[in-house]
Design goal:
Helix content is 65%, strand content 3%. It is mainly alpha-helical. The chain has a domain of 134 residues: Alpha Horseshoe (Serine Threonine Protein Phosphatase 5, Tetratricopeptide repeat), CATH 1.25.40. It has a two-stranded antiparallel sheet. Helix 6 runs antiparallel to helix 7, helix 9 packs antiparallel against helix 10 and helix 13 packs antiparallel against helix 14.
């Protein structure tokens, strides 16, 4: 239950919330080289020259032997027509870009046929993650053919890739105006709204996607993510189940596990993570999240085994170090927790929670040095939460200032902050050998019922330890 950053699209909740790794929302795609791609769905026909071409959302490319460094030469009209075919058919993205560039600069195409070349080259750039270049090509294609929905839709994908969600939504909305029956565009606009944290609007778009395409697995998956982020875990699970019926992916099982975990149903969470790992044994999120679930159940050996496996696969995974350190902290092995918290902070040096955990482990192990706190005071912002807690540990502010810093934008967040405040005040009191006062603070932390927090569970562990 270490701290994590949410993956794309980022979640707007605080980092103190139980930090399962989220597999993120799915944009519709065909080529696995792109993080943000549409399905290859045929749509409107575009005629140019003597050929009738179908414009598709991110066409599947087929490999052809072509040297990308081959010099561009003048092209005849038949060669240009052949080039537009190859611009679409290469399985190698660099070759696609080279073919498209060759016909674009040949001067043999104009109007809608030239728009098609820019569009296809933009798709290739998009697949490579070169979003600025993709957007430039889509803009040129739009100027030449402003009534084609797919150009606007794929430009939205590129803009979302840059996390320019407002512009992406504008582009998707224009695509929807031109073609109001394209399910994938609604789904992708929903992902953009989710990226902004507007989950209600995202759900509306997923609903429309499912009206148009009732078995759209990605829409169910993404709607599940939106409900989970709204803390409506039952609806989230229902949507993950609907997604899994038609597309049983590791990601959907893993995210369903997160929803079960937030409900406190850790056995069901572990079953979901197991299913994810059966499909993909190297699925880091499922391994890491299962480690958290085992920690919650007190099955510490299994938790450490999962965190060890994550670190084998990704040696710089800060949160796996933190998770393993937390297990050792729960076991009362404070000296053993220190190296893990140190590594976690090495790879996430701006994480103030990591600063706090390292200092507390050191102090509980008998080392009362404040070097880690002093570095944080010099280099990090201690005004924003949980900065006041660090300031308290440095002796700069009293406990009451920390408690007065807990109001937040909503009731749940305020309750969570108070839980954290009580817990870290209690830890300070323990270090000062004020056992009875520490117990009272741990009891207050538990009484907040902020069960999604590490601090809530840690307070229960401490109370059990202190009662023995």
């Amino acid at each position: 239950m270490s701290r994590v950053k949410q993956l794309e699209p980022p979640c707007k909740r605080r980092v103190a919330v139980l930090p399962e790794y989220d597999d993120g929302d799915k944009r519709n795609r065909t080529n696995r080289r792109s993080q943000y791609m549409h399905k290859g769905i045929s749509s409107l026909n575009l005629r140019y020259g003597s050929y009738c071409k179908t414009w598709r959302l991110f066409p599947t490319l087929f490999f052809v032997f072509f040297a990308a460094s081959e010099p561009i030469t003048a092209m005849t009209k038949p060669a240009a027509e052949e080039g537009i075919n190859r611009c679409d058919e290469s399985a190698n993205l660099d070759s696609t870009i080279a073919y498209c560039t060759q016909i674009i600069v040949s001067g043999r195409l104009s109007g809608k046929s030239l728009a098609l070349a820019f569009y296809r080259r933009g798709n290739a750039y998009n697949a490579q993650g070169k979003y600025d270049l993709a957007i430039q090509d889509y803009d040129k294609a739009i100027r030449l053919n402003p009534k084609h929905a797919n150009i606007f839709s794929n430009r939205g994908v590129a803009l979302a890739g840059k996390r320019e969600y407002d512009r992406a939504i504008e582009s998707y909305t224009e695509a929807i105006r031109l073609n109001p029956n394209h399910a994938d565009t609604f789904s992708n606009r929903g992902v953009a709204y989710a990226g902004k944290g507007d989950y209600d609007q995202a759900i509306e778009d997923y609903n429309e996607t499912l009206r148009l395409k009732p078995n759209h697995a990605n829409a169910f998956f993404n709607r599940g993510n939106a409900y989970r982020r709204k803390r409506d875990y039952d609806r989230a699970i229902e949507n993950y189940n609907r997604s899994l019926r038609s597309n049983p992916t590791a990601k959907a099982f893993s995210n369903r596990g997160i929803a079960y975990s937030h409900k406190g149903e850790h056995n069901l969470a572990i079953q979901s993570y197991n299913e994810a790992l059966r499909r993909n044994p190297r699925h880091l999120n499922a391994l890491y999240n299962r480690g958290n679930a085992y920690t919650r159940k007190g099955e510490y050996a299994r938790a450490i085994a999962d965190f060890d496996r994550v670190l084998q696969l990704q040696p710089k995974h800060a949160n796996a170090y933190s998770g393993r350190g937390i297990v050792r902290f729960f076991q009362g092995e404070f000296s053993a927790a220190v190296p893990d918290f140190s590594e976690a902070l090495r790879y996430a040096p701006t994480n103030l929670y990591g600063v706090l955990l390292l200092y507390i482990a050191q102090a509980r192990a008998g080392d009362h040095g404040r070097d880690v706190l002093a570095r944080a005071a010099r280099e990090l912002d201690l005004v924003k939460w949980p900065g006041p807690i660090v300031s308290m540990y440095l002796g700069k502010v009293p406990e009451q200032v920390v408690l007065d810093s807990t109001p937040a934008t909503d009731i749940a967040s305020s309750r969570q902050r108070r839980c954290e405040a009580y817990f870290y005040i209690a830890q300070r009191l323990l270090v000062q050998q004020q056992r009875a006062a520490a117990v009272r603070m741990f009891e207050k932390a538990v009484a907040t019922n902020a069960s999604v927090l590490f601090e809530h569970e840690a307070a229960q562990v401490e109370l059990k330890r202190l009662s023995n």
